[in-house]
Design goal:
It is a single chain. With 130 residues, the chain is of the alpha+beta class. Strand 3 and strand 4 form a beta hairpin. Strands 1, 2, 3, 4, 5 and 6 form a six-stranded antiparallel β-sheet that branches.
Length: 130
């Protein structure tokens, strides 16, 4: 069940368009409420989709990024620009993982209404596999 989020259909459609089945795809509204969580996100972060959807992404996938860096990334996304980089994130079981993330703004009309994040874990010896 989807949370009551403005433009949720637009955000989910963009997430599905980016879901090639090879990476975690998470979509949120502009304030961070999760509206889409694919099977690879379940595997990577350890949260079942029914528990992740409707929660804030920072509560489900906390990162070890400074507040300043997070604010800079969000400002870039609000301007309609994508962002790519690495985060140390935390799985549900507490394990810290290095993730390579691409965040893409979702635009409806002239407004950024959400974010689609595509992520993969990096491990010694190469990327984490499914």
């Amino acid at each position: 069940m989807q949370p009551n989020v403005p433009h949720v259909d637009v955000i989910v459609a963009e997430a599905k368009a980016r879901d090639a089945g090879i990476a975690a795809v998470i979509a949120t509204d502009i304030v961070g409420t999760i509206v889409y969580w694919n099977d690879h996100a379940v595997e990577l972060y350890g949260w079942p989709s029914h528990e992740a959807i409707g929660r804030n992404v920072l509560d489900v996938t906390p990162t070890y990024t400074s507040a300043e860096e997070a604010a800079r990334i969000m400002e870039q996304l609000r301007r309609g620009e994508s962002w790519t980089g690495e985060f140390i994130a935390q799985r549900r079981d507490g394990e810290r993982i290095m993730t390579h993330v691409t965040d893409l703004p979702v635009i409806a009309g002239t407004d950024v209404v959400g974010v689609v994040g595509v992520s993969r874990a990096e491990r010694r010896g190469g990327p984490r596999t499914a």
